[in-house]
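User: For my dataset I need records formatted as: sequence, then structure tokens, nothing else. Please produce one.
Assistant:
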Amino acid sequence: MGSFGGIEWLVIILVVLLLFGAKKIPELARGLGQGLTEFRKASSDIRKEIEKGSQEPTAQERAEKKQEQQESTKKEKQPASDEKPES
């Protein structure tokens, strides 16, 4: 059992022509093309969303970053301990 030969393809094309008619075939092909385009677009959008989601920091990473920012803010507000107050 191999792939279809030349005669098999010819019979398939003739059957399709008889079933759908010459006017209907371009419409069917156009619809099929539009469907494939929409499928590829949706697939691409899903892939981009997944990649975007994997690049976003996790909740734990966001919490750690926030904590680091708070600690650095506290250090900036505290006066240096080795400075002597002027009298």
